[in-house]
Design brief:
This protein folds into two domains: 67 residues, Alpha-Beta Plaits (2-Layer Sandwich), CATH 3.30.70; 125 residues, Ribosomal Protein L9, domain 1. It starts with a strand and ends in a 5-residue tail after the last helix. The strands form two sheets. Strands 4, 5, 6, 7, 8, 9, 10 and 11 form an eight-stranded mixed sheet that branches. It has a three-stranded antiparallel sheet with strand order 1-2-3, covered by helices on one side. With 213 residues, the chain is of the alpha+beta class. It is built from four helices and eleven strands. Strand 10 and strand 11 form a beta hairpin.
Length: 213
């Protein structure tokens, strides 16, 4: 059974992917008339906004749970000029780019991946870092500052078996406050939650017996 809710207005279609949602709440706080919280039945109302406003709501959703299609002839979203991953304080990795995860090109350009090791939906975040009491700075350690020939294009993310996230393609790693931590075309990011060099893998997953496909 699909977890996708699709609601249309004259100007825009909203596609809400429930399994991707990490409850960042940007939608219900920013436009509670479009995404109406705490109601039974219909709660998505794209007719309350313009197509541009619907697009902005989707762009502000870090997990990619909110997707849209313009029905007014307006320009659809394009891949970003710079591939980014934001290291969220005490939380996951928020990717924005032309994403290819586990060999599949995903709809949209935003996904949030687990870095605490506790998600039951690995490699994706399911909010388990809260219950697990995961603590890790979003400012983090700095890594390689490579000179990138290009800053966008396909970004391939492969969870290694019982190990790290292998990320291949041009990528800028930034802190929660926007400080650049690394520029790289290939890196390995910790997803067991125990690296002493977060956000980068230091091999600790092998020592603690981390298990994940």
């Amino acid at each position: 059974m699909s977890d996708v809710e699709i609601v249309r207005s004259v100007d825009a279609e909203v596609q809400f992917h429930g399994s991707r949602c990490i409850h960042a709440r940007n939608c219900v706080l920013g436009r509670p008339d479009v995404f109406v919280p705490n109601v039974e039945g219909e709660w998505i109302h794209p007719e309350a906004a313009t197509a541009d406003e619907v697009a902005e709501l989707a762009h502000n959703c870090p997990s990619g749970a909110i997707q849209y299609a313009r029905l007014d002839g307006g320009k659809e979203e394009m891949p970003p000029i710079v591939n980014l991953v934001r290291v969220r304080e005490n939380g996951p990795y928020a990717f924005h780019g032309e994403l290819v995860i586990e060999g599949e090109a995903h709809v949209g350009f935003r996904r949030v991946l687990c870095r605490c090791g506790a998600s039951k939906n690995k490699p994706f975040c399911d909010g388990a870092h809260h219950a697990a009491g995961f603590t890790a700075t979003g400012e983090a350690n700095s890594g390689e500052m490579a000179t990138l020939a290009a800053r966008n294009g396909p970004l391939r993310i492969t969870p290694t078996r019982n190990g790290s996230l292998k990320v291949e393609g041009p990528l800028e790693i930034v802190s929660g406050t926007g400080t650049t931590l690394a520029r790289t075309s290939k890196t390995f990011l910790c997803r067991c939650g125990h690296s002493a060099n977060k956000p980068f893998c230091d091999g600790t997953h092998a020592k603690i017996g981390f298990v994940s496909d």
